[in-house]
Amino acid sequence: MCSRRWCLDLKLLLPLLFLAISIQADHSVPEMFKLSGSNVTLQISESLPQDYKRLTWFYSHSQKIIEWEHNQPRTFGLQFRDRVQLIRQSGALHITNVQREDSSTYFMRVLKTDGKLQEWKITLKVLDPVPQPSITIVKAKKEHNTCYLNLSCVVPDQSVNYRWYDYSGLLPKELQSSRLEIIVRPENFSKFYICEVSNPVSSKYGTVCFTSLCIQAGSPGITWFATCLEVMVPILLGFHLTLNELI
User: Fold this and answer.
1) Which residues, including other chains, have CB under 8 Å from residue 242's CB and lie 6 or more apart?
2) How do residues 197-234 score in pLDDT, each as one tens digit?
3) Rounded to two decimals, what is the model's pTM?
4) DSSP bridge partners of 56
5) DSSP 113-136
6) Same domain flag for 78 and 160
């Protein structure tokens, strides 16, 4: 028995306790990232029980994908039709041509011969390749011998990371966002800036070139552009980039 006050306190605390346990458990779930259109094999890290009655993969708690029982596989639903295969020896689930809607936490459940159930979870996140970014000069204001430069490299509708480079290499961490705001002086002048847009499965690059402080170079195909690339080439290897990614 408990006093009325303690019972009320427990009723308030128990949901929070279960929430904390749930969050802590989620941290241990393996997470995989895959590019849309690629293939993936979901496999548990532990050894599969040698003797079991039934093995089932679920897309969610209640939606079955494929089940192995009585030495026969059986698939369910339309989403994964002709795209899934169960690898009998390891229990792994192979999915071809994954799409963003395939993103989920997958469950593998095994019914052992002693009647006990075991369950494993794997989170799959399918991402589209990032689009090609273009750099917009929001503002370029020259005062005396300095230039206030505001560059934008936004990719719409994408959850991505941004990194900026200039002639010296990767810019400081505090400058890494979709906007680059920087004061340029003769001693730190760079003829180009590179914006890298990435997610866990892909990356693309945009470039902008300058002839002098606050003065953007013209359109590609004329002499200045060749000069800009000539300056960029020696450091491309240091950035692990190629010309094809930049132009």
Assistant:
1) 236
2) 999 999 998 889 998 999 988 754 444 455 565 555 55
3) 0.71
4) 67, 109
5) TTS-EEEEEEEEEEEPPPPPP--E
6) no
What lies within 8 Å, CB to CB, of 99 at 6+ separation is 36, 37, 126
Query: For residues 113 and 52, what is the distance between their CA atoms, to the nearest angstrom?
Result: 5
Instruction: Quote the CA–CA distance of 155 and 162 in Å, as a whole number.
Output: 10
Q: Which long-range contacts (CB under 8 A, 24 or more apart) does 50-55 make?
A: 51/112, 51/113, 52/110, 52/111, 52/112, 52/113, 53/111, 53/112, 53/113, 54/110, 54/111, 55/86, 55/91, 55/108, 55/109, 55/110, 55/111
pLDDT tens per residue across span 168-193: 889 999 999 999 999 999 999 998 99
How far is the C-alpha of 209 from the C-alpha of 128, rounded, in Å? 29
- Tell me, what amino acid is at 183? I
Which residue shows structure tokens 């070139």? Answer: 209
Cα Rg for the chain, rounded, in angstroms? 27
DSSP-derived letter for residue 218 is: -
Structural domain boundaries enclosing 94: 29-127
Beta bridge partners of 228: none
The dihedral through the CA atoms of 174, 175, 178, 181 has a sign that is positive
CATH number of the domain that residue 67 is part of: 2.60.40.10
Cα(first)–Cα(last) distance of the chain, in Å?
A: 74
